[in-house]
Amino acid sequence: MPHITGLDHAIVAVNDLTAGEAAVERLGFRPTPRGLHSPHMGTANSTIVFHGNTYFEVLGVVAETEHNQAIRDGLEAGHHLFGVALKTDSADDAAAAFAKDGIGAGPANAFARPVEMPGGDREAAFRTANIAASATPGAYTFVCQHLTPDVVWRTDYLDQPNAVVGVKEVV
Length: 171
Known about the structure:
Helices cover 19% and strands 33% of the residues. The two termini are 19 Å apart. The protein contains four helices and eight strands. By secondary structure, it is α+β, with helices and mostly antiparallel strands. The chain has helices at 17-26, 69-76, 91-100, 149-152; strands at 4-13, 35-36, 43-49, 55-61, 81-88, 109-115, 122-130, 140-146.
C-alpha cells in the first residue's frame, strides 16, 4: 500500500496507566516519562523506545473524547493489545489512499504531547490516519507520521535493561 513504510509501534491499552507503567518496568523495560496528548485526544502514554526506530506504547484514557471511543470500547471488551501503528511518509496521502480503497476512516489527524528533555521541554508532534475498524477487525490500525522523531526516540531511553532492541513483528 502506498505511503506505508514499515512498522512503527504496538499499543497496549490499560485501564490504569500507573499500573501499566509499573508492569512494563517489572518486565525489564525503562519507559519514558508519561506524556499527555492534545486535549481532543484525551489520552496519555509512556513509550518504550528501541534503537530500531520501533517502540511500544502503554496508553491510557484520561478524559473521554470522540477520539478515544475505540480505546474505551477495546478496554471494556478486554482487548489490551489494542493496536498497531504503521510508519508513513505522509498521513494525509495515506488517508486519501485509504479512502480511495474503501478502508478510510476520515481525514488525517494532528496532535502533540509535551516531552521533558534533558536540554529543556520539547513537543512530540504527529499526524495520523486511521484505517476503518471493519478492515482490521480486532486491532485498531493506523499510520503514524512523526514530525519530531528525535523527541520520540530519545537517545537517553533507547537502551533497555532487559536488552530488547526492537519490535520485530506484531501477530
